[in-house]
What we know:
Elements: H1 3-16, E1 18-19, E2 26-27, H2 30-84, H3 90-159
Antiparallel strand pairs: 1-2
Helix pairs in contact: 1-2, 1-3, 2-3
Amino acid sequence: MDSVEKLASAISMIEEARGVPLSASCVVHRGEMLELLDEARAGLPVDLDSAQKVISARDAIIEEGRLSAEQMITMAREDVARMVEQASIVQLARDEARRILDEAREQGLQEKAEVEEYIDGRLATLEVILNKTQDAVARGRERLGGAGDKDELAQLSDEK
């Protein structure tokens, strides 16, 4: 289970937890929750490393496509230079060179778009998870802040 699933499990655990009457609080098993959150925290660097590897792979694919296109262009130019010697096939050589260049550009653009779409999807998923985690933390902090106010009110009423 990756960190995304662990965080989703923690959120589900909190959502399904038994509520405390007359309060916004709920009862969760501290040990289970802490273990789940620790595992998620431990997995985040791995998931972020995976995302970085995907980005690096994308850059490598783009560079490979660029080099491949340059090689195709070089080969096309060499082919054209050889064909120029034969006047009857000069037009055919130009058409083929254009086709190869267009094909290489199209292939490079397509590969780049696919890689960027994949990376965007992974980053969007990570963003959603991080936003949910941030919201859960904010709610937890608000609950903690509200619990402290109740304690102070109880102390004031005891002093009277």
